[in-house]
Specification:
The protein contains 1 helix and 48 strands. By secondary structure, the chain is an all-beta fold. The strands form 10 sheets. Strands 1, 2, 4, 5, 39, 40, 42, 43 and 47 form a 9-stranded mixed β-sheet that branches. Strands 3, 6, 7, 41, 44, 45, 46 and 48 form an 8-stranded antiparallel β-sheet that branches. The longest helix has 10 residues.
C-alpha cells in the first residue's frame, strides 16, 4: 500500500510518494490556493472552484470541488456602475452611478428614483455605505466634492438630502456616527433622543470626539457586538456607549488592537472591513511593520487568516489601493470576498476566504483571452415567499462594478450572464524524494456535462507547462451525469505539477476528486 506524507500546514497537504505497492490512489487534487514565493515550493491555484470538506458525512472523498456561483441578469439600471445594495423588510435599494433607487425585488422595476446626490463625481466607481437605523437610510458617498458626503434618502420628497460630511458611517444605539479622516474626528447625530425619529438628519456641532488614544490616521468605522471599532492605519480603538449626554461613547481602557487596516489615506476611506456573524474581517497592514495580511477578530484580538501563499499572491498584484470587500452565503458556506481593481496591470483580481472551511480560492471573469476580477461589486440578500426568484426562499443580488447591471447570483447558474466561466486547478507537487517517477495515468470523476476538460503538466516545479491535452471520457453514469475522465502516458519526472482546466456556459461544475497512477522509481 502506498504511504502518503500529508502536511497540513495552513490547511494544505503536499504529496510525497514514499513507497509503492499499489499502482493507483487518490492524491490531494482538491484544495485551496496556496502559491508560495517561488512555485518550486508550492504552486497551488484554485480559480472559480471552492473546496467542499466532506469529513463528517462519510462521502466518497474527504475534499471535493464545487464551481463558484454564477450570474443571471436581474435588471439594468439607467446609470452605472452599481456602487451599493441594501435589502431589508422585503425592500431593495440600490446606488447606481450618482442616483439612489428603490426597486422591486421580484421584477427589478424602479419603484422610486430618489434622484442624484449633489456634488458627487459622475462616473465614480467608489463603493458607497448604506446604513439603516430601522426607519431611515443614510448613504455615505466617498466621491463627494470637496469632501465625502452623507445623504438622507428622504421618503417624503423622494430626494437625496445632504446632511453631513463624513468618510465612514455607522449606526449604534439610536445614533449615527461618522468619521472625518483628515482630523480623526468622530461625529454623532442627534439620534432619536434628539427629538426626531430620523436621527441621522441632524448633527449637533458639539457632539463629537477625537481619536487620540493612538496617533495613526483613522480610515474606517464598523460596529461589532454593540461596540464601535475605529480602525486606523496601524491600530484599532474600540469604543462603547457610556450613556453620557452629548457624545455618548468612550474608548475602552483595554480596547486598543495593535493591528491596522490596509487601504485608506487622507480623504479616502478603507473598504475591506466586513462584519460577518459576530466578528469582523479586514485586510490589515501596519504602517510600522509591513505588508498586507488578512485578519479576523477573535474577541478583541486579531487572528491572522491569510497564509504565506495568499500574502505572496498579494505581492504579485502590485497596487492594492482601492480594494473592497463584502460577505455572502451559499449552501452552508460563508464567503468573504475581496476585489482588487488595480491588480494585474488593471485587469484586477478577486480573492475569497471561506469561513466554513478556513480555505482560500480565487475568482475571475472571462473577458476574451483575459481573466479579470469577478464582476460582483456589492451584495444583498432577501427572503422571498415561496415562488420567488430562486430555488428556496432566498434571493441573492450582486451589482456590477463596471455598468448598471444587477444580477441574481447562485450556484445553480452555470455562466456569468451568458459568459463562460473558466475553472482552473493547479495541484501540489508530486515527487518521490526527487527520484525519477513514471506517471502512468490521471483519472478524475466529475459532473462537467458536455464540457471537455484539459490537463497540462509541468516538470520544472510549476513554472512552465506543456500544451493542454483534452482528457478522454472513459465512463459515464447516465442517470446522474457523473463522468470519468482519464489521461494516459504522462511520461516521467522528478517533480510534477498538474494543471486542470475547463470552461462552460451551460454546465454546473462539480468535481469529486482525482486519482494518479504513478510508479515511483529508485534512480536518484
Amino acid at each position: 500500500r502506498w504511504l502518503e506524507l500529508l502536511n497540513w500546514r495552513h490547511g494544505q497537504r503536499s504529496w510525497n510518494v514514499l513507497m509503492p505497492t499499489l499502482p493507483f490512489d487518490a492524491f490531494p487534487f482538491c484544495g485551496p490556493s496556496y502559491q508560495t514565493e517561488g512555485a518550486i515550493i508550492d504552486a497551488q491555484r484554485t480559480i472559480n472552484l471552492y473546496p467542499e470538506i466532506n469529513t463528517e458525512s462519510g462521502a466518497k472523498t474527504p475534499v471535493a470541488f464545487v464551481g463558484r456561483p454564477g450570474l443571471q441578469l436581474f435588471t439594468t439600471m439607467p446609470y452605472g456602475p452599481i456602487r451599493g445594495l441594501w435589502a431589508g423588510n422585503g425592500r431593495l435599494f440600490v446606488c447606481a452611478g450618482t442616483h439612489f433607487y428603490e426597486i422591486n425585488p421580484l421584477t427589478g422595476a424602479i419603484i422610486q428614483d430618489y434622484g442624484a446626490m449633489s456634488g458627487v463625481s459622475v462616473g465614480s466607481t467608489l463603493p458607497v455605505q448604506i446604513v439603516s437605523s430601522g426607519n431611515q437610510l443614510l448613504v455615505m458617498d466617498p466621491s463627494g466634492f470637496p469632501n465625502p458626503k452623507i445623504f438622507n434618502a428622504n421618503p417624503a420628497t423622494y430626494t437625496m438630502d445632504y446632511v453631513h460630511d463624513g468618510w465612514s458611517l455607522e449606526y449604534l444605539d439610536n445614533f449615527y456616527f461618522s468619521l472625518d479622516i483628515a482630523t480623526n474626528k468622530i461625529s454623532q447625530s442627534a439620534g432619536v433622543y434628539g427629538g426626531t425619529a430620523l436621527g441621522g438628519t441632524s448633527w449637533p456641532a458639539l457632539d463629537y470626539a477625537i481619536k487620540t488614544g493612538t496617533v495613526d490616521l483613522a480610515t474606517r468605522l464598523i460596529v461589532v457586538n454593540n461596540l464601535l471599532w475605529v480602525m486606523g492605519q496601524s491600530n484599532i480603538e474600540v469604543w462603547y456607549n457610556v450613556g453620557s449626554s452629548g457624545f455618548t461613547l468612550a474608548r475602552m481602557s483595554n480596547g486598543t488592537i495593535n493591528q491596522g487596516i490596509f487601504g485608506g489615506y487622507q480623504y479616502v476611506p478603507a473598504y475591506t472591513a466586513v462584519r460577518v456573524q459576530n466578528t469582523v474581517l479586514w485586510m490589515g497592514a501596519n504602517a510600522e511593520r509591513g505588508y498586507a495580511q488578512f485578519w479576523k477578530a477573535d474577541g478583541l484580538s486579531p487572528a491572522r487568516i491569510s497564509t504565506p501563499g495568499i500574502e505572496v499572491l498579494l505581492q504579485t498584484y502590485g497596487n492594492l489601493q482601492g480594494a473592497t470587500s463584502f460577505a455572502e452565503e451559499y449552501s452552508g458556506h460563508i464567503f468573504y470576498v475581496t476585489n482588487f481593481p488595480n491588480a494585474n496591470s488593471g485587469l484586477g483580481a478577486t480573492l475569497v476566504y471561506d469561513l466554513t472551511t478556513n480555505q482560500w480560492h480565487e475568482r475571475s471573469y472571462t473577458n476574451g483571452s483575459n481573466q479579470e476580477r469577478a464582476r460582483p461589486n456589492c451584495f444583498a440578500s432577501l427572503q422571498h415567499p415561496v415562488g420567488g426568484l430562486s430555488t428556496g426562499n432566498a434571493t441573492n443580488y450582486v451589482g456590477d462594478y463596471a455598468n448598471g447591471n444587477i444580477y441574481l447570483q447562485s450556484t445553480t447558474y452555470a455562466s456569468d450572464h451568458g459568459t463562460a466561466i473558466t475553472y482552473t486547478r493547479t495541484t501540489p507537487h508530486v515527487t518521490s524524494s526527487n527520484r525519477w517517477t513514471k506517471h502512468q495515468s490521471f483519472t478524475m470523476d466529475a459532473y462537467l456535462g458536455s464540457t471537455v476538460p484539459t490537463l497540462a503538466w509541468s516538470n520544472d516545479g510549476g513554472y512552465t507547462f506543456n500544451s493542454p491535452k483534452n482528457m478522454q471520457l472513459v465512463g459515464t453514469i447516465a442517470a446522474s451525469g457523473l463522468n470519468t475522465y482519464r489521461q494516459w502516458q504522462l511520461g516521467r519526472s522528478r517533480d510534477r505539477v498538474y494543471k486542470f482546466s475547463c470552461s462552460s456556459t451551460a454546465d454546473l461544475i462539480r468535481i469529486s476528486n482525482a486519482w494518479l497512477s504513478v510508479e515511483p522509481g529508485t534512480e536518484p
